[in-house]
Every structure is written in structure tokens, then in C-alpha cells.
Amino acid sequence: MSEPTTSLPETPGRSPQRRSWLMALPLLAFGLLAAIFWFRLGDGDPSKIPSALIGHPAPPTALPPLQGLLDSGTQIPGLDPAMFKGKVSVVNVWASWCVPCHDEAPLLTELGKDKRLQMVGINYKDTPENARRFLGRYGNPFGIVGVDGNGRAAIEWGVYGVPETFIVGRDGTIVYKMVGPILPDNIDAVLRVEIDKALKAGS
Fold first, then answer.
1. pLDDT tens digits along 84-122
2. How far apart are alpha carbons 78 and 82 in whole angstroms?
3. Which of these, 162, 196, 14, 29, lies nearest to 91 by C-alpha position?
């Protein structure tokens, strides 16, 4: 008859401490990853999040126009990827329900006065009525407005959230991405600098 096995006695207080340490490991790992991510961003500015699409062609996604959005009685066209060729384009992803989009709208309208640029809007998961009302309120800076009703185009553009702004060079390649709204602090110091680089390239 075999003798029953007996486990070694646990040191009092040792097992709960070990369990506490094991439970804390995931939290510590998350904190370490968050710290690495934060420092990689420099000062934590979300507009500095890199885009995997920079240096690559703009997504070949065609988008329908925003129905009823007119310019001198003519329907403003939707997004045709062929329109990027030969022009420096500023592509802004926006929605009427997006609070920061309201903040940046006057600056986009001002930027739209630069006739060297092709202004492209991607209206994200919005209703046509609200989108038209938004542009009617602030002025429409876009010569092209594509409707991304299901969010597929935003995924293909690598959008984290609205608003986001891209600069596409004359060869149809994405050269810059700004995450977050255009602000008085970054429109001249950052965005216009990148626009000027794109305008000078290949000119």
C-alpha cells in the first residue's frame, strides 16, 4: 500500500505575496509599454503619431459625392484617386458631429484660399443634411468631397480618429499626416511648412 504524498508546508505569508506579485505583473507591463510609447512620441503630442502610409501612394478608394453640395449650381465631385496626380492636395477627414472639426473649420476655410492647393474632404460617417449644414455654416474649402459612409476609406487611409489631415504630393504619394485638429499653433509652424515642402518637390 503506497503512502500518501505530502506537499511541503508553505511559508506563512509567502503564497499571498507571490499571488499579489503575479497579479501586478500585467499592470507593470502595461505601464512600461505606455511609458515607451509616450517617450517615442516626444512630448506626447498625438499629431506626431507616425503613419505607415507616408511615402506610399494614396489609397485607390473612390468615394461618392456629398449629394446636394453645389458650387455655382454644379454638384461638387466625389473622390476619384486619379485626381491626386499632378497636384498638391490637402485631404481632411471630418464630420459634423466631431467637435474639434468645428474648431478647425475656419482655418481650413482660410487654407482653401491658397489656389496652389487641391482641397479634398472625406466626410466620415455623417448624414448628408448635417454635412451640408456644417459646410454652409463655416464655408466650404473643398473642391472635392467624398462620402465615407461606412468608414472603410478611413481604415484604408489609416485614420485614428477625426479630424485628420494628409498632404499628398503631385505624384499621388502621401508625404505628411497630422492627427488631430488644425490649430492656430500648428497651421503655420507645422502644416504650412509641410505644404511648402510638397509644393517645392518636383516643381
1. 999 999 999 999 999 999 999 999 999 999 999 999 999
2. 12
3. 162
Per-residue pLDDT reduced to its tens digit, 53-63: 899 999 999 99
Torsion of CA 140, 145, 150, 151, to 10 degrees: -80
Task: Please report which residue ranges of 9-151 form alpha helices under DSSP H.
Answer: 14-40, 99-111, 128-138
- Per DSSP, the three-state class of 91 is strand
pLDDT band at residue 198 under the 50/70/90 scheme: very high
Burial category of 32 from C-beta neighbours within 10 Å (exposed 0-12, middle 13-18, buried 19 and up): exposed
C-beta atoms surrounding 161 within 10 Å: 13
Pull the grid cell for residue 100.
Answer: 474639434
The C-alpha atoms of residue 69 and residue 76 are separated, in whole angstroms, by 6
Residue type, position 50, single letter: P
Q: What is the pTM (predicted TM-score) of this model?
A: 0.76
* Residues 62-78: tens digit of each pLDDT: 999 999 999 999 999 99
Asked whether the CA dihedral 138, 143, 149, 151 is positive or negative, the reply is negative
The torsion defined by the Cα of 87, 107, 92 and 195, in degrees rounded to 10, comes to 40
